[in-house]
Amino acid sequence: MMKRTGTALSMTAAMLMVSTSISSAQDLAALEAAAKAEGMLTTIALPHDWCGYGEVIAGFKAKYPEITVNELNPDAGSADELEAIRANKDNKGPQAPDVIDVGFAFGPQAKSEGLIQPYKVSTWDSIPDNVKDPEGYWYGDYYGVLSFAVNTDIVKELPTDWSDLLKPEYANSVALAGDPRASNQAILGVQAAGMGMGAAAGAEAGEKGLEFFAELNKVGNFVPTIGKSGTLAQGQTPIVIWWDYNALSGRDALNGNPPVEVIVPQSGVLAGVYLQAISAYAPHPNAAKLWMEYLYSDEGQLGWLKGYCHPIRFNDLVANGKVPQEMLDALPPAESYEKAVFPTLEEQGAAKDVITSKWDSVVGANVQ
Prior knowledge:
The protein is an alpha+beta fold. 39% of the residues lie in helices and 14% in strands.
């Protein structure tokens, strides 16, 4: 049930239902009042152990105790989120999500289907242009980059770039965190290697990435095993090409047994981004907009960073001295992320087609 205070929303609050941006503190105060009048926010697919979402949600609740956060299906995938909007177009009850957090490809899809509505947060200008819809229908929220997780009990000289992985001291050491014929993380890892070899994102990087892994396999450095925390710790895959947030969380979970270093390569820094959007049929549109304002505030962005996902405003926060030193100390150097490249959907698709279709013939059918 929608919780309301009084019999009707104020004219200002009602106007905010169709507003697409916040331009002043006065507007934000009106939005807060309208959201509190609605009394609820319905989220979906936000597991508490992903990107620090547990603390992010708790922070929103603490700031706005008048708003109940109704969490749907924390383990849902991006496709499930869009289906939840479709299935509840005419439903204003608790099963209708107000907001979604989806993979990059799903933002444009949701817009084309009319499933989401535009809204530009007050920090809009600090979100990079290449990861937001210019009309405000969807916008990047956080990202990871492909990194090297290294078991330093075994690997004494740390690799700093993709080309280092070809050195003889890394024999039987390097693994992908998935099958590059099926795993998006592994496919992007191959594309990142191609970019590290000087190729542009897209089909060219796919070709160069395949050449790189063929050479890595030829010299005996590539391990045909899917890398994860267990294989890293056991020494079966002493170097794993992994999203940095997974690598950093894995490092913490191992707690020094063995010690692990997480390295962002000097080149080929490929970023994978997720997106936020508001349902076009949101039962609580003002609460949804207030949630977005919280997520894209310094406080919300730092909540994701605490969970090792780089918030989309990371470079802006660092430049303005907003990131606590202890957070920076737990991460690879901030300057490593200044080189992050966000391949377009077209570039990702082109690279994927090359890598999945040619992996067996170029690298080897018995690999992975």
